[in-house]
Design a protein that fits this description.
two-stranded antiparallel sheet; nucleus; 2 domains; repeat; alpha+beta; 3-stranded antiparallel β-sheet
Length: about 260
């Protein structure tokens, strides 16, 4: 699930398997995103309405430090894509350098799972803490298995000896490639988790949209529908593409606060 023309050597992928219809080449460009696990009938319907273009499926774990399985239907070029410098952190240890000293040898994770829309449940965290507290030094395999199940489910990171914590909103922003405090204005932690959990992974989108930089050297107009906390706009801004006009359609009052 590496998409098209991914240049990273160990994940190198091929070109678009079939050419897009002639009438869809060139402006206007469209870019539709949805979760990979959406019903097949939905993907088939969207492809049918978008000139029968097949989706490009990408798991962002091949690009950054957290998984995010998404599909994209678009008429963008797939040649000459590029990443921005510096490259996104590839592992949790590159993203959060302070955690490596506390990371137990029996936790083999280098990347986190898909970042969800919810906070880790307090009772679950407390249960894991109690189990660890009753284990001296390296916990037995049965305890390790239990703890790892909770860590994977909650995307927990180690912050001390036998101490772990869920990701803070600003840490999720970093993993998703957003500017720090991008969602600070949307409300409390719960609202921020929800908005971030439904958002784009910026480094993936920047890679896809990078082909627009040479096409629109003097800027472009953008119509964005239900893009949440402005993922497409942030990606274009990162690429240095001037946004002449942005027409926004977003039904979430919480997400609209980002634009105000």
């Amino acid at each position: 699930m590496t998409g098209f023309n991914l240049p990273i050597e160990q994940y190198r992928s091929g070109d678009r398997p079939s050419s897009i219809p002639t009438q869809t080449t060139g402006p206007p460009y469209f870019y539709y995103e949805n979760v990979v696990c959406a019903p097949k009938v939905l993907w088939a319907t969207m492809s049918r309405f978008l000139y029968d273009i097949e989706p490009e499926f990408v798991d962002s774990e091949f690009i950054c430090a957290a998984g995010r399985k998404r599909g994209y239907i678009h008429n963008l070029l797939v040649q000459n894509r590029s990443f921005l410098d510096p490259l996104p952190p590839e592992t949790v240890f590159e993203a959060f350098t302070h955690v490596k000293k506390w990371w137990p040898s029996w936790d083999s994770r280098e990347k986190l799972n898909c970042l969800g829309t919810f906070e880790a449940i307090a009772t679950t965290l407390e249960h894991i803490r109690l189990v660890l507290a009753n284990s001296q030094n390296a916990p037995p395999p049965s305890v390790q298995k239990f703890v790892m199940k909770g860590c994977r489910k909650g995307n927990l990171i180690w912050i001390g000896k036998n101490r772990f914590a869920p990701l803070e909103p600003h840490e999720i922003e970093r993993l998703l490639g957003f500017p720090e405090h991008h969602t600070r204005c949307v409300g409390g932690a719960t609202q921020r988790y929800q908005s971030l959990g439904k958002s784009f992974q910026m480094d993936t989108v920047v890679y896809h949209l990078s082909v627009l930089k040479d096409i629109f050297p003097h800027g472009m107009n953008v119509l964005t529908l239900f893009s949440g906390i402005g993922g497409a706009e942030v990606a274009l801004h990162k690429l240095g593409i001037h946004l002449k006009n942005v027409v926004l359609g977003e039904n979430s009052k919480t997400n609209r606060a980002v634009y105000i």
